[in-house]
Specification:
heterodimer; A: mainly alpha; two-stranded antiparallel sheet; 2 strands; globular; B: ABC transporter involved in vitamin B12 uptake, BtuC
């Protein structure tokens, strides 16, 4: 990329090329797969689930335990990428949508324990729907707001919503700071109690990735990009700009809600402390560090953030022989903060963008 | 009726604190069109410095306040010069993300130095027990009076700085039209750095004042995040662009929150602030005091 100007949405030349009409030779090479995006994505999804199944089965219990929180972050980060990268809006309040999803899940699923592994699908769906409704409410307000105003309003949401649990009247339902407890999913034959929730979460991720990848290549995705790039041009082309923006918020909040439900399942608990402002900002850090606007960036960023928070920070402090728990606990946040600022200053494409840039540099110009 | 007035009295001092935070946001918005989301982290950090001096090293309240303000000046200036300057001309979301990065980093640093688990209390400057009127206890204490006077003094000083001094004139010129100011020999870059420094110093005073209003206020996150939201709400009520609007916005937010907390339901002030913020933005997306502005398309 030649532009050294800092851009929020780094357009990737290779992405664009893959969407451009194909030449006859490339169509011949990949056959029906290159003509049908849906088929290609579905094939990737099925292969992905098989690979993940092998991965979960072959990893040690402790590794699987380490990976436990990753699906929740990936789901929410996919939602945020869709919003920030595709529709050009910003949300500092995705932790709040995760909280809505987590509480919906934690209120419903423990009551549906007759066939827990079947009803969990319904509870996930309920979490997505309820947080999507919350997203619709916020989205309607957000469609009128721009840049810093929207950032401030969603930040207020992230600060405000967890305080709802402190309210005396709601406290009897939401159990205050302590939160709601969530039972664990009974594992079927062949899985243990660490593998099964992780596998459930990873399936959710694959389904979301499949859906979102298709959405991005569809008419809806194109309208979102059009609105992001130029609102006036988009509305002149007959698009309803507020409609597209609200839709982006709805889908994005729904995905964050599923992430919240997965977080509640992984933590066996839904409590306000888990959905602080710092969660929202960590999600933003995940998508920016991974690479804004690309799904692979959301996945890479989420993995990075979870591993850094829970494991690498500890290893790092051990390696530097820092014994203070205060330093170890706050090291990941410090790193996100520095990386967020650095990403904007030197590498707006994040990890994925930088890697692609290196590949493009290494390749001789055509 | 007495309760209504008494609650209003109780809201005034908080409102003045919100006004000071809002002023610090408005100053930066006016000069660089950036909302400084790191303001919450900056004033948290400077308040921790003050708290450390007062409680751990037994330094006098006023000396600690002075050091906190001075460190605000330094943090604000350095932040502008090092972090914000490179993204000032980019797309509007880049500075938002940079200031958020600074916010997280400051919160993490404070947690590293002072710990997250305990919440500390900052001693108020004066007595926090309310005055009495006859047999009634007023929700207004000598410390509240001190807060009101301090913030009012800040407002007057800022007014004098911007309207009556040559430096203030240059700062306004740099904010109004950087290109023309440069042609006329104004060192725009330095003035922007100075503007951020002064803004962060105002925030630092607001932080110390806020920390004295309730016990357990001083912690890396939580209350200061809420204070940032209140300050932003107050600034938006005032239109983000008008210092007078920031003061009016802060005071009205203080009163509204005090009444809502007592008459509707307690413990959910941040939600009220969110509702007020969204309501104001829905009616006037540019705030109540802003001039109608055309958006560049």
């Amino acid at each position: 990329m030649a532009d050294d100007e800092l851009r929020l949405q780094p357009e990737n030349p290779m992405d664009r090329a893959s969407q451009a009409p194909r030449t006859a030779s490339s169509t011949d090479r990949y056959g029906v797969l290159s003509r049908s995006t849906l088929l290609r994505h579905t094939l990737f999804a099925v292969v992905g689930i098989l690979l993940l199944w092998l991965m979960v089965k072959s990893f040690s219990a402790s590794t699987n335990q380490e990976l436990q929180l990753i699906p929740a972050y990936i789901c929410a980060a996919i939602g945020l990428t869709l919003l920030v990268g595709l529709s050009g809006q910003i949300s500092l309040g995705h932790g709040a949508f995760m909280m809505v999803g987590a509480y919906t899940f934690a209120l419903l699923w423990p009551k549906w324990q007759l066939h827990p592994n079947l009803t969990i699908i319904g509870a996930f769906a309920a979490a997505v729907v309820v947080s999507a409704v919350a997203g619709a409410i916020v989205g309607v307000a957000a469609a009128r707001l721009r840049g810093p105003y929207l950032a401030g309003a969603t930040l207020a949401l992230a600060v405000g919503l967890p305080s709802m649990t402190q309210n005396e009247k709601l406290s009897s339902h939401l159990k205050g700071s302590q939160g709601l407890s969530v039972p664990s999913a009974p594992q079927p034959h062949g899985f243990d109690f660490v593998q099964w929730p992780l596998f459930i979460g990873l399936i959710c991720c694959v389904v979301l990735l499949w859906f979102t990848a298709n959405l991005m290549r569809s008419r809806v995705g194109r309208s979102m990009r059009a609105v992001r790039d130029d609102e006036v041009a988009a509305s002149l082309s007959g698009l309803s700009v507020p409609g597209v923006q609200v839709l982006a918020f709805v889908v994005s909040a729904g995905w964050a809600g599923l992430g919240g439900a997965l977080l509640a399942l992984a933590n066996s608990n839904a409590s306000p402390g888990a959905f602080s402002v710092q969660l929202s900002l960590t999600l933003l850090a995940a998508v920016v560090i991974g690479g804004l606007g690309s799904l692979s960036g959301a996945v890479v960023g989420s993995v990075f953030v979870v591993m850094l928070t829970n494991y690498w920070a500890q290893d790092l402090t051990n390696a530097l022989s820092i014994s203070s728990g205060k330093v170890a606990n706050n090291l990941p946040l410090l790193i996100y903060g520095v990386l967020l600022a650095l990403a904007m200053l030197v590498a707006p494409g994040g990890i994925v963008g930088s890697v692609r840039r290196l590949i493009a540099l290494a390749r001789p110009a055509r | 009726m007495f309760r209504f007035v008494n609650l209003a009295l109780g809201g005034v001092s908080n409102g003045m604190i919100y006004a000071a935070v809002a002023l610090s946001l408005v100053m930066i918005w006016r000069s660089t069109r950036i909302v400084n989301f790191a303001a919450g982290g900056m004033l948290m950090f400077t308040t921790f410095i003050g708290w450390d001096l007062v409680q751990v090293h037994n330094v006098n309240y006023w000396a600690a306040l002075a050091v906190a303000t001075l460190s605000g000046l330094i943090i604000g200036g350095v932040a502008e010069r090092v972090l914000v300057r490179p993204v000032e001309t980019g797309p509007p979301l880049n500075p938002v993300i940079v200031t958020l990065g600074l916010l997280i980093a400051l919160e993490a640093l404070a947690g590293m130095i002072w710990g997250n688990s305990q919440s500390h209390s900052y001693p108020p400057a004066y007595d926090f027990r309310g005055y009495t009127a006859g047999s009634h206890h007023l929700f207004f204490a000598p410390n509240d009076l001190f807060i009101v006077i301090t913030v009012a003094a800040i407002v007057v000083l800022l007014y004098l700085l911007f309207q009556r001094t040559a430096l203030g004139l240059r700062m306004r010129a740099a904010a109004f039209n950087p290109e023309v100011s440069r042609l006329l020999g104004v060192r725009v870059g330095r003035l922007l750095t100075l503007g951020w420094a002064v803004s962060a110093a105002v925030g630092a005073v607001a932080g110390v004042l806020a920390a004295g209003t309730s016990t357990g206020y001083v912690q890396p996150t939580g209350p200061f995040d809420a204070l940032l939201v209140y300050g932003f709400t107050a600034a938006v009520i005032g239109g983000l662009d008008s210092p007078a609007g920031a003061v009016v916005g802060g005071l009205s937010l203080g009163l509204l929150l005090s009444w809502a907390d007592s008459y509707i339901d307690n413990n959910i002030e941040p939600m009220y602030a969110l509702v007020i913020l969204v309501a104001v933005l829905m009616v006037r997306p540019n705030g109540l005091f802003a001039r109608a502005a055309a958006r560049r398309v």
